[in-house]
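Final report, Chapter 2: Outcomes

The project's central promise was a pipeline that accepts a single protein chain and returns its three-dimensional structure in a standardized token representation, suitable for archiving and comparison. That pipeline is now operational. To close this chapter, we reproduce one record exactly as it appears in the project archive, with the input sequence first and the structure output second.
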Amino acid sequence: MMNSTMIIAVIGGEEASDEVDRLAEEVGRELAKRGCTVVCGGGDGVMEAVCRGARAEGGHTIGILPGHNADESPPNQYVEFPIFSGLGYARNSMVALSGQAVIAIDGAYGTLSEIAYALIHDRPLIGLDTWHFAYPGHDAERLVRADSPQDAVEKAIAAAQRRGVP
């Protein structure tokens, strides 16, 4: 059997309160402790905090950035592997689909679009202090709620493993 590293996408806003920043950094730490690679949008806020946490524990980070180069779209200082998409917000689909599971933390409309991509493409989706949905015809339970960074990471890894990810 081939050994592969689990990649977990972490999505969230470019602006984060101190509390959201703390949650995201802890998610990054927990993912790295479990040997997971973080993929995110590579910018500020939640993205920077999750990368900071992952790198602090020796983990790997991938940032999928909206611009064509570092001058146009500078990655945060904790992104180990920047990918310049040149796609603007359309890169959100790449972020959501690059993880075997997705953890959403807080976030604004860009995060909402990434949540939608995860749902459309049936990626396991864990929510930590993020969007809520209540409208007819939508299965709100597909966004599994987590109570803590540790809970979010455990649920994301378990969901990815149920899908057959080693």
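Archive annotation: The two ends are 9 Å apart (CA to CA).
This record, like all others produced under the grant, will remain available to the consortium after the project formally closes.
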